[in-house]
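Pipeline run #58 for the internal structure catalog. This entry was flagged by the ingest filter as a single-chain record with no existing model, so it goes straight to prediction. Upstream metadata was stripped on purpose; only the residue string is passed forward. Reviewer on rotation: M.T. Logging verbosity set to normal.
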Amino acid sequence: MADIPKRDTTGKCEGECKDQVTQLQKDQQKKIDKEGMEGSTAETPSVGHAKKRNQAPGGMGGHV
């Protein structure tokens, strides 16, 4: 028990404590915002066979 960091047992940080998950999320969001949304609102062609789900999995080929 003595080897467990105090931030894990008490929630108080001593020394260098990084919130790597939150930092990664912020970095990813900045990257997404930078890329923009051009072209994502374009119409896509209708896929008729995707409107019904009465075919067995893998019925059109491929892996299940």
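catalog note: The mean pLDDT is 76.
catalog note: The chain is about 30% helix and 0% strand.
status: ready for reviewer M.T.
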